Amino acid sequence: MSKIARRKFIQLSAVAAAGYLAQSGREAWADDLPHLTADDPMAMAMKYTDDASSVDPASRANPAADQNCSGCALVLGNDGDAWRPCQIFPGKSVAAKGWCSVWAPKP
Predict the structure, then answer these.
(1) 66-100 CB burial, b ≥16 within 10 A, e <16
(2) Which of 24, 82, 89, 99 is geometrically suited to a Cys-Cys bond with 52, CB 3.0 to 4.6 A?
(3) d(CA 58, CA 96)
(4) Tens digit of pLDDT per residue, the chain (107 long)?
(5) pTM of this prediction?
(6) Which domains does the chain show, CATH number per domain?
(7) How far apart are CA 35 and CA 37, in angstroms?
């Protein structure tokens, strides 16, 4: 085995080991995630609220009274869950009845 092949083997082994150690071993569920709060800096920047009915529809970029997190394309999880993961707020779950300024309709 040449030195170049040995180096390549060690590099690939290190990358594989790092990937294995970084993998959590299970999926994160919305129940495992902390709930996003309105005083979170990212939530404040995105004008997040747990209750979409408290936001004036006229103040939204795309005014519509029926906008909430459960109807947003960026929210993951199962329909009917009260709290679900959101792509905008990684590591936190959002209220299905919530709203933020990044709201986008499901296709």
Answers:
(1) ebbbbbbebbebeeebebbbbebbeebbbbbbbbb
(2) 99
(3) 21
(4) 445 566 655 655 544 444 444 444 445 455 689 999 999 999 999 999 999 988 887 777 776 767 899 999 999 999 999 999 999 999 999 999 999 989 888 88
(5) 0.67
(6) 27-95 (4.10.490.10)
(7) 6
